[in-house]
């Protein structure tokens, strides 16, 4: 059971059951005593320099990361997709949307990463032209999530997604479509619009079924496709009439 430390005003007085850190330090030090609920005292001494300044100890920052791999090239002969990520071939917003899709898959406790999760990832990232276009047409994250649960159902509460998520076949094809489209057009990087259109290109995918149920159609796909070449950011700052 973890104990709750309390500060003692008698830090300079020797006490029984006391453990001192830095016992061999010869430099002046500041002493701090901590007393647990079990009355065991822990004395911390921090050495200070001759100038009187407290020495600083460097600590490594730790963070939890979600491993993910984005395909970066397609082999036209074998049809296999390389899985070594090259971030420069993907826009920053596309990478973030993909990472968010992995988190959504884990939240829903699904075994594989699919087109429906990538669609949610696009909307969670939220700052790309594709995401803004979807919201302008009434397609929001909450609606997509609700529709996804209607189509795919809920996972068992006790199930946990694998550490490394594999991709569904429709998502593999959607990402390959996005890469190929970028290659054919000669554009510098695959952006979020390419990802959205890749989802729409897979007629039997859950992502397309969700989009169709929420009113997305070929006409809207054609409309957003016209903006794909200009990237994820809308540079038109003119006020809408």
Map the helices and strands:
Layout: E1 6-7, E2 18-20, E3 29-35, E4 41-47, H1 92-107, E5 112-113, H2 115-125, H3 129-136, H4 141-152, E6 166-167, H5 169-185, H6 192-201, H7 206-213, H8 218-225
Parallel strand pairs: 2-4, 5-6
Antiparallel strand pairs: 1-3, 3-4
| Major sheet attributes | 4 strands, mixed
Q: What is the overall silhouette?
A: globular
Helix and strand element order: EEEEHEHHHEHHHH
CATH superfamily of the domain at 92-229: Clp, N-terminal domain
Q: How many helices does DSSP assign? A: 8
Q: How many β strands by DSSP?
A: 6
What is the name of the CATH topology of the domain at 92-229? Double Clp-N motif
End-to-end distance, in Å? 64 Å
Oligomer: single chain
The strands making up the biggest β-sheet line up spatially as 1-3-4-2
**Which range best describes the helical content: under 10%, 10-25%, 25-40%, 40-55%, 55-70% or over 70%?**
25-40%
Keywords: Repeat
Region (Disordered): 1-30, 66-88
Organism: Medicago truncatula
Pfam families: Clp_N
